[in-house]
Structure formats: C-alpha cells, structure tokens
C-alpha cells in the first residue's frame, strides 16, 4: 500500500476508535443515570440495614432516620439549616464565596435533597444530620454528601464516622461508584476527619495554578466492589 493510502487508512481507523469510545461513554452515562434514578426511587434506603438504625456509644444513644426534604417536619428542617449556619458560617466567611444564607437554604430545600438524621432516643432532640443526594457528577453515578453536621456536644464520639458509614452503605448497595463531598481546605478538623475515614482527594478536585487558587477540595471514597467488577469484565 502507498504511504498516502496507509495514512488515510490509519486516520479512518482512529475515527472509528473515537466513535466507538464516544458510544461506550454515552452508554456508560446512560447506565449511570438509570442507576441514579433507581436509587432516588427507593422509598427508604436505610431500611435494608436494621443494625445501623441505632448508635449507642460514648454516652450517646440515638436512632437514625431517613427523610426526603418533602417529608421533613418544618422544625426539623429549620434546625438543620440553623445547625449548618452555626457550624459553617465562620468557615464560609473565610472563603472567597462568603456566607450566603439564602443560597444555603435553597440548596437544602431543593426537591432532590435527602436527609439522614440522628435523633436522641431519650429526648427526641436531633443531634446531627447529613444532607445527601444520589446524582450524576462529572458523568459518574455518586452519592454526594452536601453536609455532615453534628451538634458540638456530640462530636468526637464516633457518630460522624458512623453516619458516613451509613451513607456509604446506602451508596454502594444502590450501585453508586463513589461517595463524594466538598470540604474547605481551611476546615482542618473536617479534612482530618474525612482522611481518618479513608477519604482521599478525588480526580475532580480542582488544582491550584499560578493564576487561580481554590479554597476547597473534593474528597471521595470509591465503591471497590463495583470497580473490581468493571475491571474483571
Ligand atoms: C466533622 C464531623 C462531622 C466529625 O464527626 P465526629 O463524630 O466528631 O467524628 P468521629 O468521632 O466519628 O471521628 C472519627 C475520627 O476523626 C477524628 N476527628 C473528628 N473530628 C476531628 C477534628 N475536628 N480534628 C481532628 N480529628 C478529628 C477523630 O478523632 C476520629 O479519629 P480516630 O479514628 O483516630 O479515632 C463533626 O466534627 C462536625 O459536625 N463538625 C462541624 C461540621 C463540619 O465541619 N462538617 C464537615 C464538613 S461538611
């Protein structure tokens, strides 16, 4: 074959490969969207894990409940918004974006918002919560943890780790590829906590460059079972 014909054949093959890759990527995204939709439709993703409905340790005794935002009692939702403000306002004020209460309220009341709440068994008072969503993130099906917030007196007793484990269980049994979260770089307690819970910097975390710096990073924990299934195919 002449050199010119060879070149033509090579570029034809490359085009074919690119189209096959695009097709495979589109199919992957479609499958991810299907899994997210299925997960969102589960009436109570906590129901499968009865042994994780209670946390009794270090003087804390609480039950965990799951609520979609539409099913949250107003006082409970207002408490969650207020706790987020108490815990996070100083950290947001240190960031470039500042604290925008209305935006936080909007985010926490959007239809897709789901909540895992820890309630004191004796007093019925809420002690901590996570706002999370099953969602697509950069083309990947994930459980996105928007918030994990505990009342100050309930911290460092293992409840945060326990709630994060419950999020992981809900994510991985519903075929999500990872649990993802955003944390301010200056939230040293948060970074230490997530690192101790074996979260690492996610591929999608923005990198500082000479003309841009980011005051947050993205951390994640992968669904190892799902990855091993993918690689063995
Ligand atoms: C971050 C938070 C959820 C952690 O929950 P917690 O119940 O206090 O954490 P745990 O007791 O489960 O701790 C798990 C591990 O992290 C460590 N850890 C937790 N908070 C820490 C902190 N502030 N500084 C250093 N280490 C911390 C614990 O010592 C423990 O380590 P170990 O494995 O060596 O025992 C809780 O402190 C909180 O609500 N903070 C305010 C809100 C916030 O920053 N949320 C995260 C960003 S959304």
Q: What does this molecule look like?
A:
The protein is of the alpha+beta class and about 230 residues long. The chain has one domain (about 40-230): Gcn5-related N-acetyltransferase (GNAT) (Aminopeptidase, 3-Layer(aba) Sandwich). The chain has six helices and eight strands. The protein has an eight-stranded mixed beta sheet with strand order 1-2-3-4-5-6-8-7, sandwiched between helices. Strand 5, helix 4 and strand 6 form a beta-alpha-beta unit. The longest helix is centred in the N-terminal third of the chain and has 39 residues, at about 5-40. The site of coenzyme A has 19 residues, from strand 5, helix 4 and helix 5.
Outline the secondary-structure elements.
Layout: H1 3-41, E1 54-57, E2 60-68, H2 74-93, H3 101-109, E3 114-120, E4 126-137, E5 140-150, H4 159-173, E6 178-184, H5 188-196, E7 200-201, E8 216-222, H6 224-231
Parallel strand pairs: 5-6
Antiparallel strand pairs: 1-2, 2-3, 3-4, 4-5, 6-8, 7-8
The site of coenzyme A has 19 residues, from strand 5, helix 4 and helix 5.
Describe this protein with a few key phrases.
eight-stranded mixed sheet, Aminopeptidase, 43% helix, globular, alpha+beta, binds coenzyme A, 233 residues
């Amino acid at each position: 074959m002449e050199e010119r014909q060879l070149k033509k054949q090579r570029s034809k093959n490359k085009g074919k490969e690119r189209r096959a890759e695009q097709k495979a990527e589109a199919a992957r995204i479609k499958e991810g969207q299907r899994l997210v939709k299925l997960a969102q439709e589960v009436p109570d993703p906590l129901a499968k894990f009865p042994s994780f409905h209670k946390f009794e340790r270090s003087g804390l005794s609480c039950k965990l409940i799951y609520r979609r935002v539409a099913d949250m009692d107003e006082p409970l939702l207002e408490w969650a918004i207020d706790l987020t403000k108490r815990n996070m306002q100083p950290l947001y004020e240190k960031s470039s974006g500042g604290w925008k209460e209305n935006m936080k309220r909007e985010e926490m009341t959007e239809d897709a918002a789901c909540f895992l709440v820890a309630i004191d068994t004796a007093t019925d008072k809420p002690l901590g919560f996570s706002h999370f969503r099953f969602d697509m993130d950069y083309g990947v099906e994930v459980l996105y943890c928007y918030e994990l917030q505990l009342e100050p007196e309930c911290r460092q007793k293992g409840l945060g780790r326990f709630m994060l484990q419950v999020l992981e269980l809900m994510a991985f049994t519903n075929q999500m590829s990872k649990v993802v979260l955003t944390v301010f770089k200056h939230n040293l307690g948060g970074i230490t906590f997530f690192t101790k819970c074996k979260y690492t910097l996610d591929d999608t975390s923005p990198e500082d460059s000479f003309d841009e710096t980011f005051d947050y990073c993205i951390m994640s924990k992968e669904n190892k079972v799902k990855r091993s299934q993918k690689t063995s195919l």
